Every structure is written in C-alpha cells, then in structure tokens.
Amino acid sequence: NTTKYDPALAKQLLDEIGMDKLDGDNFRLDLDGNPFVFRISYPEASVEFNPVAELLKEQLEAVGIRVEIDPLGIDWGLYNQRKDGNEIMASILWN
Fold first, then answer.
1. Residue 1: pLDDT band by 50, 70, 90 thresholds?
2. Is pLDDT above 90 for 44?
3. DSSP-assigned states of every residue in the chain
4. What do you get for the CA distance between the two ends of the chain, in Å?
5. Which residue from 30, 49, 52, 95 has the least number of CB within 10 angstroms?
6. Residue 91 phi/psi, 5° resolution?
C-alpha cells in the first residue's frame, strides 16, 4: 500500500471533518471557529530535525493548516518536561 502526498484529498478530508472555514490568511479554523495551530516540537538532538519540520510545515500549510515550529529545537530538559506534561502536539524524534 503506497501513500502519496495529495493536497486535494487532504483538503477534502479536512472539509469533511468540519474544518472547512478559513481565516483571513486562508488558514483553517477549528470546529469552534477559533484559529487552529499545529505545533511541531523537537529536541536539539540533531540538525536533521529542522529541515524535516520545515518540509512538514510547507506541506501542511499548503492545505490550510497553520504550523508553528519550536525554533531550532528545544533543550532536552524542556522537551521532556513538555512531553511528560502532555504538552506536545507533534514531535520529531528518531524511531
């Protein structure tokens, strides 16, 4: 089973779940009509994480999802504190 990047399908699926309303900058609003922001966090463990985060941001913003990236990674202590507190929405880390 192969998955491909399909912005048109992604937009359709987001519309179907009710994220069909946009703000003035063409980013999607959440189901309550508030700005939706997808935050990507990663520890400062590797220079490889930032380009991956930037690619994800580009692809998500192409379908109307506003993305914020923790700048250049966060130190391990803060990353683990946020992880333990369930304060990380999405992260990049080695498997």
1. low
2. no
3. ------HHHHHHHHHHTT---B-TTSPBB-TTSSB-EEEEE-BTT-TTHHHHHHHHHHHHHTTT-EEEE-TT-B-HHHHHHHHHTT--SEE----
4. 21
5. 95
6. -140, 160
- On whether the pTM is more than 0.90, the answer is no
CA 85/CA 82 separation, integer angstroms: 5
What average pLDDT does range 67-74 have in this prediction? 80
- Which single residue is written with the structure tokens 């089973």? 1
Quickly tell me which residue has 């922001």 as its tokens.
37
